[in-house]
């Protein structure tokens, strides 16, 4: 198995050093990229050969949420499928939700242990990773939903019966493989459908799609 390639984007050198030590202590992952300047990070995003980017809150002139949005969009436009994990000094449900809305696959606090960080890294590299739908629904109820765009609603209205079943199962948090097995179809068809909806809606992550579709079906 190839090592998981990790990138660190944070203007705080001490934080980068601490994260790097934890990651490089693992046999299956290594830090291959460090960035301290947010503008440079976004410009270089298309060339990143990494599986996961860990993004800190301190990005000079760019606020954390704004930086994640710009970075996620740059990665999508470059067809770079690396995942984003954002973090802050302390865990907060509100900060987690804001990070997910901005395009992060998930969020973690620096007050969490190294084991939790490493587990999350190993989880988000799965292309069909989404945050638990129940947790997302709870955050959406508290902090406000992500409304479906007109383009997404149009696409959803055009789905045939089997495609609708795919999306209904997707909303339960099932993996592409599990959905494909249950509906007796190719996994690639499941993945392609979800990717098509993300692109049509102008979104950058599966979490965003799950939130938007859930809001549209209420």
Itemize the secondary structure elements and their pairings.
Blueprint: E1 4-9, H1 13-24, E2 29-35, H2 38-44, E3 52-55, H3 64-77, E4 83-88, H4 93-102, E5 106-109, H5 114-124, H6 133-143, H7 150-157, H8 161-170, H9 176-183, H10 187-201, H11 206-216
Parallel strand pairs: 1-2, 1-3, 3-4, 4-5
What features would you describe in this structure?
With 218 residues, the chain is α/β, with parallel strands linked by helices. 54% of the residues lie in helices and 12% in strands. The protein has helices at residues 13-24, 38-44, 64-77, 93-102, 114-124, 133-143, 150-157, 161-170, 176-183, 187-201, 206-216, and strands at residues 4-9, 29-35, 52-55, 83-88, 106-109. Strands 2-1-3-4-5 form a five-stranded parallel beta sheet, sandwiched between helices. α7 packs antiparallel against α10 (187-201), α8 runs antiparallel to α9 and α9 (176-183) crosses α10. It is globular and about 50 Å long. 35% of the residues are buried. The model has no long low-confidence stretch (mean pLDDT 91).
Question: What composes the largest sheet?
Answer: 5 strands, parallel
User: Helix and strand string, N-terminal first?
Assistant: EHEHEHEHEHHHHHHH
Number of helices: 11
Give the number of DSSP strands.
5
Unreliable residue runs: none
Kindly name the structural category. alpha/beta
Q: What does the overall shape look like?
A: globular
Beta-strand residue percentage: 5-15%
């Amino acid at each position: 198995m190839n090592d998981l390639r990790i990138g660190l984007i944070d203007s705080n050198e001490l934080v980068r050093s601490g994260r790097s030590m934890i990651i490089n202590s693992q046999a299956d992952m290594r830090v291959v990229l460090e960035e301290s300047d947010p503008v440079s990070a976004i410009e270089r995003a298309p060339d990143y050969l990494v599986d996961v980017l860990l993004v800190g809150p301190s990005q000079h002139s760019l606020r954390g949420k704004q930086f994640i949005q710009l970075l996620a969009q740059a990665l999508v436009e470059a067809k770079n499928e690396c995942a984003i994990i954002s973090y802050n000094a302390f865990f907060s449900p509100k900060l987690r939700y804001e990070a997910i809305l901005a395009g992060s696959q998930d969020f973690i606090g620096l007050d969490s242990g190294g084991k939790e960080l490493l587990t999350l890294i190993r989880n988000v590299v799965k292309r069909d990773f989404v945050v638990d739908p129940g947790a997302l629904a709870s955050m959406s109820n508290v902090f406000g939903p992500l409304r479906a765009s007109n383009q997404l609603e149009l696409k959803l209205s055009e789905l045939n019966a089997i495609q609708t079943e795919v999306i209904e199962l997707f909303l339960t948090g099932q993996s592409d493989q599990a959905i494909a097995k249950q509906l007796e179809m190719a996994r690639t068809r499941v993945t392609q459908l979800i990717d098509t909806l993300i692109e049509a809606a102008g979104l950058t992550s599966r979490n965003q799609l799950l939130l938007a579709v859930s809001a549209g079906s209420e």
